[in-house]
């Protein structure tokens, strides 16, 4: 049921505070303030994690790499399942394979998962559909609990996947002695606050709709970010492509000089995702480089970032201030809403984009 919303995608974007609240509640113990990851995975004894996935789930997995390596000092490889399954990857049995999949049925992801199992690896699946093939075939199921996702473009499943991986990063950090109990509790508190901040972030919808007017006229759009904002830049570009049919590319902002800057002209909106964090100055300097070439910058930052930003951004979208731990969740709604409103302005069929299927069960 769409309720008062025009599209499932719009509803699912707005469902995210509640969705990720449910997700987080399943992975933390609110009484003790500790993470609570079931399945008996011994994070301390793991040599590495191999994440396999496709599309948006792959991008969520990439976010997981940033989180898990930073906090738990545990090596994480993330690979597109369709590449992984055919290239004879070097694997050792002491690693854990994690299949990320909203549907739990994606053919390439399933094949990549089975390949790892065949090499003797323990397996886990981060899925929405708990009755799915992947859920049945793994040692451990980590459900994302966000409720059925109907819109073909994944939104609430993405934030729920990222929420699970954040909890997992905290749990692994604790198990591996990288953080103490007090720090775990501090991080869990931050995570528990995330749904409120995601709700705040959704309130940026009017500001984003105004940006969408401009973006809808573009032929190409660039998305740039550093650190965890890099996967989000990829996700922003993927969302825009799939529902508005505007060509978009997500890049690590540091790669700008190594090629994509050649695309920058007065007609190309450049969305820069840059909370006021340890990467900010570098992102601000990329913003200057883009503006010096006439690029139209859409700057998504927070109040501190707005104050410290070089002047001249075409538009600034001011997201709620948040700890870097939860920024991947808080900065997701603005890029989803941007894609959504551009698609609506272009009259596209948002919930059923052309050529796309919700679940890709053929390779
Ligand atoms: C993009 C999108 C797809 C899916 C991909 C994987 O919005 O929805 O890229 O993420 O097809 O699907 P699952 O997660 O079901 O394996």
TrEMBL record:
It is found in: Cytoplasm. GO terms for cellular component: cytosol. Homodimer. Keywords: Aminotransferase, Cytoplasm, Glutamine amidotransferase, Repeat, Transferase. One of its GO terms (biological process) is UDP-N-acetylglucosamine metabolic process. The chain holds residues 244 to 606 of 606 of the full protein. Its EC number is 2.6.1.16. This is Glutamine--fructose-6-phosphate aminotransferase [isomerizing]. It comes from the Bacteria. Catalyzes the first step in hexosamine metabolism, converting fructose-6P into glucosamine-6P using glutamine as a nitrogen source. One of its GO terms (molecular function) is carbohydrate derivative binding. The active site is at residue 358.
């Amino acid at each position: 049921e769409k309720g008062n919303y025009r599209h499932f995608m719009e509803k699912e974007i707005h469902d995210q505070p509640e969705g990720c609240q449910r997700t987080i509640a399943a992975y933390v113990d609110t009484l003790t303030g500790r993470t609570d990851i079931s399945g008996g995975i011994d994070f301390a004894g793991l040599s590495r994690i191999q994440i396999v996935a496709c599309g948006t789930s792959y991008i969520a997995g990439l976010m997981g790499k940033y989180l898990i390596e930073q906090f738990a000092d545990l090596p994480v490889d993330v690979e597109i399942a369709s590449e992984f399954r055919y290239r004879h990857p070097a694997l050792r049995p002491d690693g854990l394979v994690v299949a990320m999949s909203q549907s739990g049925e994606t053919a390439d992801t399933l094949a990549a998962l089975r390949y790892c199992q065949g090499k003797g690896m323990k397996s886990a699946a981060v899925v929405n559909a708990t009755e799915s093939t992947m859920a049945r075939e793994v040692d451990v199921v980590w459900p994302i609990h966000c409720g059925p996702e109907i819109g073909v473009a994944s939104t609430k499943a993405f934030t729920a996947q990222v929420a699970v991986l954040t909890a997992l990063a905290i749990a692994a950090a604790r198990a591996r002695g990288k953080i103490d109990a007090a720090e775990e509790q501090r991080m869990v508190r931050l995570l528990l606050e995330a749904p409120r901040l995601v709700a705040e972030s959704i309130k940026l919808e009017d500001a984003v709709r105004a940006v969408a007017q401009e973006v809808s006229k573009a032929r190409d759009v660039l998305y740039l970010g550093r650190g965890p904002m890099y996967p989000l830049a990829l996700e922003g570009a993927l969302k825009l492509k799939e529902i508005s049919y505007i060509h978009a590319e997500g890049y690590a902002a540091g790669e700008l000089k190594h090629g994509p800057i050649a695309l920058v002209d007065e007609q190309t909106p450049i969305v820069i995702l840059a909370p006021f964090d340890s990467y900010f100055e570098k992102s601000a300097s990329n913003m200057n480089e883009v503006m010096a070439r006439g690029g139209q910058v859409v700057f998504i930052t927070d109040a501190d970032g707005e104050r410290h930003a070089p002047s001249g951004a075409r538009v600034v979208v001011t997201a709620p201030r948040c700890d870097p731990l939860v920024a991947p969740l808080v900065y997701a709604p603005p890029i989803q809403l941007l894609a959504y409103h551009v698609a609506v302005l272009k009259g596209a069929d948002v919930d059923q984009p052309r050529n796309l299927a919700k679940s890709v069960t053929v390779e």
